[in-house]
Specification:
It contains 18 helices and no strands. The chain has about 500 residues and is mainly alpha-helical. The chain is globular, with a radius of gyration of 27 Å. The relative contact order is 0.13.
Length: about 500
């Protein structure tokens, strides 16, 4: 009996000890659980202005493609030289933007984001309007170049978006960027084709002797400038500064309370660069260099495809093309627009949340690698229109989705590659490099296509252009292997700290 009583006492003590241990472990688990913060609402006013900036750029880049050949022909250029000079007009925008984007980004780090964005909007509004009045070749090239030079604000817009968002809503913000950019790429050529030469398409409304008779390409330029003007007016009233006291990066408590979008970078005066240009400093930052490289390669093979498809698709079946008319080409981009709308609203936000920007970029790039070599198969479906669209339709739908995932993801990666005080310069640098690659793309794509069309042996025939595009995409995928998962999160300054409530300067550390 004594033994049984002792055993019972030990069982009771063990039971209470076990309950105590479970209670203690439960408390520790509760304490270790992270505090889940609800997503921060997106600031719709500034986001609308930023979307107008992105829309105006993609719109103005692609709007001229349907009528550029007719415009050059109206300048009196010989028929055999039309392609050469049309390429110069198309490329002059990107060449000038390459020359100015880094400067605009650097200027925004000193003077603030708001003045640079407003100057860019005004410059784009003015110069695209002036381009519509072109009557000579050199006037058109000058207007287009000035348009690109003054329109280096997309990099600054990406910086601004990074500053008014956090890790909880950045993906949605940049998703809106990607969506609006894609919309501009779709409706730009449509508006340019439909509204150019209105005296021919609507002679009753625009008879001979009217202003649009003498300036047949003015109307689409007016539409483009009005889109930019809308962004300029809204920006003037609803675009707050995110970099107050520019030059010293000093943020007071009153400024933080007045403007919730203000970032508070550094509590020290601005210093001049030490014995080296900032560009060299950026190049030596591994993640900046890699993300800029993949962004530039993405811009390169995207622009090469647009150039190659617009020419190759019009070739006859016998020459290896698919005998497309301008309406057929436009219909292809309509399919892209529908797929883009569905993708950016329903698929991208969930995909980037699950995979993160880096893995999503890799997935979208692999899709591009596998997809582009398949399009020439459509050339074997001669005479079967419905079979042809069974290839072309899904191709453009999947390409549009993958392409916009890639562009939106790389925007996030570029913004995550640098610390806050270098954010504007980093975006300007990336925008400059991508503009340079875009400027060379028409020449590269046209040269490869022209050479390949003179050959009949696979893979050096008309397949070569699409295989080259896939190869560039594959190189881009390979470059991403040098990045690790830390690029999915924003960087903070090493000397950033948390101040007490009694301090005049308020500093916050962004959550990872």
């Amino acid at each position: 009996e004594l033994w049984n009583q002792l055993a019972t006492i030990w069982q009771i003590r063990f039971f209470f000890h076990l309950r105590k241990l479970e209670h203690k472990m439960g408390n520790e688990e509760e304490e270790s659980l992270p505090l889940i913060k609800p997503p921060t609402p997106l600031p719709l006013g500034p986001l609308f202005v930023l979307c107008c900036i992105v829309l105006s750029e993609s719109f103005s880049i692609t709007m001229i493609f349907p009528f550029i050949a007719d415009m050059v022909r109206d300048f009196g250029v010989a028929e055999k030289d039309i392609g050469f000079y049309a390429g110069w007009i198309a490329s002059s925008f990107n060449i000038a933007q390459f020359a100015s984007s880094f400067g605009w980004g650097r200027l925004s780090d000193y003077t603030g984001r708001r003045p640079v964005l407003l100057i860019g909007l005004f410059g784009n509004f003015l110069m695209i309007f002036m381009f519509g009045w072109s009557t000579t070749l050199w006037y058109a090239i000058l207007a287009r170049s000035l348009n690109g030079f003054l329109n280096g604000n997309v990099g600054v817009a990406k910086t601004y978006l990074a500053e008014i968002t956090d890790d909880s809503n950045a993906a949605k913000g940049f998703s809106a960027f990607g969506f609006v950019w894609g919309i501009g790429l779709v409706i730009g050529p449509s508006v340019g084709g439909l509204l150019s030469n209105p005296h021919r398409t609507a002679p009753d409304l625009f008879p001979k002797g009217s202003i649009l008779y003498y300036f047949p390409y003015l109307l689409p330029c007016i539409v483009s400038s009005l889109i930019t003007l809308c962004g300029l007016v809204c920006g003037f009233f609803f675009l707050p500064e995110t970099l107050p006291n520019a030059g010293c990066y000093k943020v007071t408590r009153d400024q933080q309370l007045e403007n919730p979008f203000i970032e508070d970078y550094v509590d020290k005066p601005k210093e001049k660069e030490k014995e080296e240009w900032l560009i060299l400093r950026l190049v030596r930052i591994k993640e900046v260099l890699i993300t800029t490289s993949i962004y530039s390669l993405l811009a390169l093979y995207t622009m090469i495809f647009d150039e190659v498809f617009a020419i190759w698709s019009t070739y006859s079946w016998e020459d290896g093309g698919i005998n497309f008319s301008p309406i057929d080409i436009g219909s292809s981009y309509v399919i892209s627009g529908v797929a883009l709308l569905i993708s950016q609203i329903f698929i991208f936000p969930k995909a980037v949340k699950i995979l993160g920007p880096l893995k999503l970029f890799k997935v979208s790039t692999l899709i591009q690698v596998l997809l582009h070599p398949l399009l020439p198969l459509a050339g074997y479906l001669s005479g079967e229109s419905w079979k042809l669209w069974m290839v072309v339709g899904p191709f453009f739908a999947f390409r549009s989705m993958a392409l916009n995932w890639a562009f939106t993801s790389v925007m996030l990666l570029v913004n995550n590659s640098a610390t806050p005080e270098l954010l504007g310069s980093t975006n300007g640098f990336a925008q400059s490099c991508s503009s340079l690659f875009r400027a060379t793309a028409p020449t590269i794509g046209g040269t490869i296509l022209a050479w390949s069309m003179r050959n009949e042996t696979f893979p050096f025939n008309y397949w070569l252009s699409f295989l080259f595009i896939a190869f560039v995409a594959l190189v881009s995928y390979g470059v991403t292997s040098m990045l690790n998962d830390s690029i999915n999160y924003r960087k903070v300054r090493e000397d950033e700290d948390i101040r007490t409530a009694d301090d005049d300067i308020v500093t916050f550390t962004p959550a990872h």
